[in-house]
Design goal:
Blueprint lengths: L2 H15 L7 E6 L4 H16 L4 E9 L8 H9 L4 E5 L1 H9 L5 H18 L4 E3 L4 H15 L8 E3 L6 E3 L7 H11 L15 H15 L3 H9 L32 H13 L10
Parallel strand pairs: 1-2, 1-4, 2-3, 4-6
Antiparallel strand pairs: 5-6
The structure holds iron/sulfur cluster.
């Protein structure tokens, strides 16, 4: 695999598919010190050279007191690439760490989000690029479905609540196999965060689950990703997307029928008796 080519092709496709970057955009790239965001920055720099669309790039790193090594090498890397870098020490996050060392991800990310908007605003940028990958999307899909009862993942493009920024995730088609290989091949210095060593998290379990499935079917991740772009809403249970129920006595149309209580009961029996193994849901 030509890693660089794959990274550029998939990033370029996501940018085009979701109209992520527009003429005159001033993009702030969130660089966390990990392989994904640095691969994202490199991809954007390379794509900009070939793009007819004019846009500027800056990078920033939010210090929340969780890096296990100094982040200066990230600054050196960015200055080699001629990218202006802002290292933003977020005092409220440091105070949070002092006052509540055991705080969870929800609080941490809320603090980080506020800091990200602060920096982007100071940098006079209108777009914030985040390094979430295809793996992150798939994990978010499973996590939301399994733990929050919602079928959703992460938006490739969205706006901040204030409407001041467009948030883009150009790596949505890029798997971490690619960013990992790219970082290794390019000698990108990685500055891990203390949380990367956390064990027993839902995320870690989902990663292990997907990795296990991929041993037998290497295309599991691609299939999940493709599924997010090919929703068969009529075979789900959200009534907002279901058509009118067929008239009584009308022949059943497999693609449009609603689930009757009898069918649900039959499905429950089928699932139960098959112990959730390879149940054919197209009944
Ligand atoms: S994993 Fe660590 S850095 Fe990431 S959101 Fe959770 S607490 Fe914050």
């Amino acid at each position: 695999m030509d890693t660089r080519k794959t990274l550029l092709r998939k990033t370029g496709k996501a940018i085009a598919d979701f109209d992520m970057i527009r003429d005159g955009d001033r993009i702030a790239v969130g660089v966390s010190g990990g392989k994904d965001s640095l691969a994202l920055l490199d991809a954007l720099l390379l794509l900009r050279r070939r793009s007819p669309v004019r846009f500027s790039l800056r990078a920033f790193t939010i210090e929340q007191g969780k890096f296990v090594r100094p982040v200066e090498p990230v600054g050196d890397l960015l200055s080699e690439r001629g990218v202006e870098w802002t290292y933003y020490v977020d005092e409220p996050s440091l105070k949070l760490l002092e006052d509540q060392p055991g705080h969870g991800c929800d609080t941490c990310s809320r603090f980080r989000r506020r800091a990200v908007y602060d920096v982007a605003s100071k940098l006079d940028c209108n777009v914030i690029a985040l390094g979430h990958t295809a793996d992150d999307l798939c994990e978010a899909l499973l996590r939301n479905a399994l733990f929050t009862g919602r079928l959703s993942a992460l938006p490739p493009v969205t706006s901040s609540r204030s409407g001041d920024f467009r948030l883009i995730r150009p790596l949505v088609y890029v798997s971490e196999d690619v960013t990992r290989a790219y970082a290794e091949e390019s000698g990108i210095p990685i500055t891990p965060c203390v949380c990367s060593h956390k064990t027993g998290t839902v995320r870690e379990k989902l990663r292990a689950f997907l990795a296990d499935l991929r041993q037998d079917n290497p295309h599991v991740l691609e299939n999940l990703l493709a599924a997010m772009g090919r929703i068969d809403a009529e075979r789900l249970l959200d009534k907002r997307f279901l058509g009118d129920p067929p008239a009584t006595g009308a022949p059943e149309n497999d693609a449009t029928m609603l689930l009757s209580p009898e069918k649900l009961a039959r499905a429950a029996v089928a699932i139960d008796s098959a112990s959730c193994q390879d149940v054919d849901y197209a009944w």
